Amino acid sequence: MSHNHQGPPLMVNRGFFEEKRNVIRVCQIVVGIYCALANAYCFPNDLFRECSHLYHSFPQVFSIVCVNVFFCVLTTVMVIFDVFGVSQTYYKYNFHLMERLFSTLAAAVYCISALFLLMALFQSTFVIQWLFTLMGTALNTALYIYDAVDRFKNDPTRGY
């Protein structure tokens, strides 16, 4: 039996939390879960003047499924890959480029989600609880924008 694997073996990255990028990713996951729950239970609308668990608009479902859950799951997968050193093991695939493009896409889609949320907020009667949803979405948007800018500025694959 011959193995075609070329590269170091898979091993746990013990210094995972020593890198700022990894701490940001964990924060993105935690805030993404909060945003998904906040959007599911407390999205601005005119049907109910309080937080409810009912789905009532396309922007709400888009924000929950297409933005928060989707990017939370993919960020979790990327964190697992980084914890177990998959990016170093399979070095012929350019994980740095993929992470840079992923962060940029996530930042752009979170900006769209924040715009949907602001539009829903201005179209409905103001209730103070809806600011929790807005703050969570704004925080995760800022985290993904910071991550994308940091990955473009400090790209390890760029020639020096």
A few lines on this structure:
With 160 residues, this protein is mainly alpha-helical.
Task: Give an account of the 3D structure.
The structure is a single chain. This protein is mainly alpha-helical. It has one domain. Helices cover 66% and strands 0% of the residues. The radius of gyration is 19 Å and the shape is elongated. The model has no long low-confidence stretch (mean pLDDT 85). Keywords: Membrane, Transmembrane, Transmembrane helix.
Number of strands: 0
Overall morphology:
elongated
What is the H/E string?
Answer: HHHHH
Q: Report, as a whole number of angstroms, the end-to-end distance.
A: 41 Å
Helix content: 55-70%
Main β-sheet: number of strands, strand sense, barrel status? none
Gyration radius, in Å: 19 Å
What structural class is derived from the secondary structure elements?
mainly alpha
Number of domains: 1
What portion of the residues fall into strands of 2 or more residues?
A: under 5%
Number of helices: 5
Average residue pLDDT: 85
Parts with pLDDT < 50 across at least 5 consecutive residues: none
Question: What is the element layout, followed by pairings?
Answer:
Blueprint: H1 20-41, H2 58-83, H3 86-89, H4 95-123, H5 130-153
Helix pairs in contact: 1-2, 1-5, 2-4, 4-5
